[in-house]
Specification:
The protein has a single domain, classed as 3-Layer(aba) Sandwich (Rossmann fold), CATH 3.40.50. The chain is about 45% helix and about 15% strand. The chain is built from five helices and four strands; from the N terminus they run E-H-E-H-E-H-E-H-H. Strands 2-1-3-4 form a four-stranded parallel sheet, sandwiched between helices. Helix 1 crosses helix 4. The longest helix has 19 residues. The two termini are about 30 Å apart.
């Protein structure tokens, strides 16, 4: 199978970073594990105190380092443990999407999910959904360009 840019996707396993708030997103991931629900192992979880601490610079550095997608998992809207942290994160994710569209990486590689700590099943489903979405988009263009540069040098 090939994506729009002709990259062979059969062997492509995306690297996805999930920034999860400690109280809800991370707890939902933990619950999914406790319930023995399977979700793709390529989703790397980074626990943060609140999604309000999510910073665009961390996401840009992750893309530069080769991440294929970044998703933020936070508290349900209106139920943030720090009152408005998830609303701030939502604005940052929207801003990051615009930046990625402008620089050619693609804003669809970033998203945000809101869930409670009791939503382990929904976390596992979201993780599968995210992985399929990124798999369909193909590798991060930055990673692909770096690999072409290395082959040209070597």
């Amino acid at each position: 199978m090939r994506c729009a840019k002709g990259v062979i996707l059969d062997r492509f396993e995306p690297e996805i970073i999930a920034f999860c708030c400690e109280y809800c997103g991370y707890a939902a991931a933990d619950l999914a594990g406790s319930m023995r629900l399977s979700y793709p192992a390529n989703l790397k979880i980074v626990k943060i105190p609140c999604t309000g601490r999510f910073d665009i610079i961390h996401a840009l550095k992750a893309f530069e380092a080769g991440a294929d997608g970044i998703f933020v998992f936070g508290c349900l809207e209106g139920n943030c443990h720090f009152e408005v942290g998830n609303l701030r994160a939502k604005k940052r994710v929207e801003h990051l999407r615009r930046i990625l569209d402008e620089c050619g990486i693609g804003g669809e590689r970033v998203g945000m999910y809101n869930m409670s700590s009791a939503m382990g099943r929904q976390f596992a489903e979201a993780a599968r959904e995210v992985t399929e979405k990124i798999r369909g988009l193909g590798p991060n263009p930055v990673k692909a360009a770096k690999s072409r540069e290395r082959r040209a040098e070597g």
